[in-house]
Amino acid sequence: MQHSKTLYEKGLLKNLKMLTQRQYSNFKFVARLDQIKTFYTGIKALNFENNGKFQVSEDGLRVTVEEGNCVQANLYITASCFAEFHVVDMVTFGLNMNIISECLGLFAGIPCSLKMFYKGDGAPLVLVLHPNEEADISAECSIKTTNIDDVIDYNLDEESRTLNVVFVRGPALANIFQELNKAADELRITLSPRQPHFKIETLGVVKTETFVEVAKTSDMIMLFNCRDTTSACYRNTEMRLTHKALAAASKVAIKTDSSGLLEMHFMMQSEEQAEVYVQFYIMPLAEI
Amino acid sequence: MKFRAMMQDPEYMREFLYIVQTLSKLAKTCVMKISMDKVYFVANEESGSAAPLVWVEINPKLYFSEYTMQGVDSEHDPHIVLSVPTLNLGTALSLLRNNPCFCKLKLTNLQFPCLTVDIDATTKSSSDKSRRAMHHVPVDVIPRCDWPNFAVPVVPDCKLVLNMPSNRLIRGLIDKIKNLSPTIIFYATSSGEMNLVAETDMATITTRYQNLELRAINISEGDKDKEQIEASCSVDCKKTALFFSALQVPSNELSCGIVDDQLIHLEVNIRDGIAIHSKLPAVCV
After folding, report:
1. Which CATH number fits domain B2-150: 3.30.390.10, 1.10.10.10, 3.70.10.10, 3.40.930.10?
2. What keywords are annotated for this sequence in UniProt (chain A) (predicted)?
3. CB contact under 8 A, B204 and A102
């Protein structure tokens, strides 16, 4: 924050708390990304609720956003994705998702590199952005952080007899969701080893129904592993929260079991082998 | 009163269309002030709106291939002042996009005063039959006694003027910052550095541009001994964003002048003899 510090001395910045002045080595969390794009897409996919929870460990970065107790979205970026990654123990802090999303988009559409610094409790998260091709331009953002409560852990039982797993090509699934009735209240997803293998139905207010069936032999199915029939209803508004992630995903994994809890993994397109994915847990509606 | 102008260069014509479109994004009507050596368009939406004050300066001798005007009978400085609906003029000019042969602008008096746009839409490349479009855009002639109310803004004497980098970068930047902070501070130094600073309870954002070209500097008595001259001004972020998002011209050269705590003057030079200006007043933080 060398540069913001001078501005503070000139009296242009007033909030000293938002400036970090200690040496590099004292930071609890430092990370550098050469390309901001995938990270930015991931953050945008989670920007449906303001409270973002950041958890950093040696494995990587996890960002969690929850809506009520019904939807949880996680962005995972493994440590290997970062050009530089340094963390002391386990670091957690809360951030306003809208603000970090706007800050990451400051140089919209231009390839940028990013550095993140975090000093510890009560300190801001500092982002330094450098457009790759413009050496004379840079931006420093410091964003207020908050303490966070624990994150609910959702889990599907991997051993369950009814665990169904399907891998689908992202763009194809995005097309299907585009065609479904957007005004519908509820959406039913059925997975079955028998026909119809994969079925999405919408139920509208005036009993209008649309459905799409995908056979397991379809080109869009990359893996089909169903043991038993599962079927559950979800609120369409909650399903629609996944759309930004879906639009950016190259591959989607759909997992569910007899409890109806829906887990979706969205693999983000990334040039390298790096692992960036967004995960959603969506609670089913109670069957009446 | 007489006014005729003609354009023939396709690039100039397209630029002219872009300029009128820029104005139409800023104000419903603009004031067109025609004199022998300058044509001005001034867009000044009534107070209360977020639109900034923008004016366009055209040197007709460089810009129009033919130009004649006869102003109201004042010998020293003949003028014509018109109030022009920007959207209508933009629609009338929309054919300029298709590389026509020429475009004539004329002040005519049908039942009421009109700015007549006469475009020969035969494209230079194709050999199809001549197609000519004529639009009459109703305008109001502003009487001489009201002229003092429609004076063209003066380019202020800025303490520091720096040439800024491409519009694309700065437009996106201010567009994002406006969602986070109501005001933005422009801070420039004589060593060619420009900082855009936004501060709220939730976040502090500073953007720095280095190695900018210093275009002008006015050193006051008190600053003479200083190593580095500085200027800063805080302006409304929405207003600034609106100026950049309204710009329809592919601009290469943008300059930003600052008068300490008073105003910011933005100038887009499209080419010799044609420039878009805007003045943004300071706001208190």
Report:
1. 3.70.10.10
2. DNA damage, DNA repair, Nucleus
3. no
